[in-house]
Amino acid sequence: MVSLETPICDFGAPAIDFALPGTDGKVWTLDQCRGDKGLLVMFICNHCPYVRAWEDRMKAIQRDYKDKGFVLAAINSNDTVKYPDDDFNAMKQRAEQDWADFLQRAG
Fold first, then answer.
1. Is residue 26 helix, strand or coil?
2. Can you tell me the mean pLDDT for 78-99?
3. pTM
4. CA distances from 47 to 10, 18, 79, 89, 103 (A)
5. DSSP secondary structure letters along 27-72
6. pLDDT tens profile 13-29
């Protein structure tokens, strides 16, 4: 069943540290992702039409806020048994196809 209410975020709570593999072959931690002023974490996947519809917006957010000290990090936390299109290799392939030009320009 789909939840019809959005949970309230505790914006004052510290982020939980992580060490996750990136599609670029690196392992990324919270400190490595964080910008000077902040970090926006988005939970994404390959198969969701809403996520796909937001890709250009995500790129614009990163482009517009990088020089202001903010970084966007995208994390896929899906169950890859239920959603095989979201396994790591598929995410890596999608990143290489759809985000490579943007990531190269974003530096």
1. coil
2. 86
3. 0.74
4. 28, 24, 12, 14, 21
5. EEEHHHH--SSEEEEEE--SS-HHHHHHHHHHHHHHHHHGGGTEEE
6. 888 899 999 988 899 99
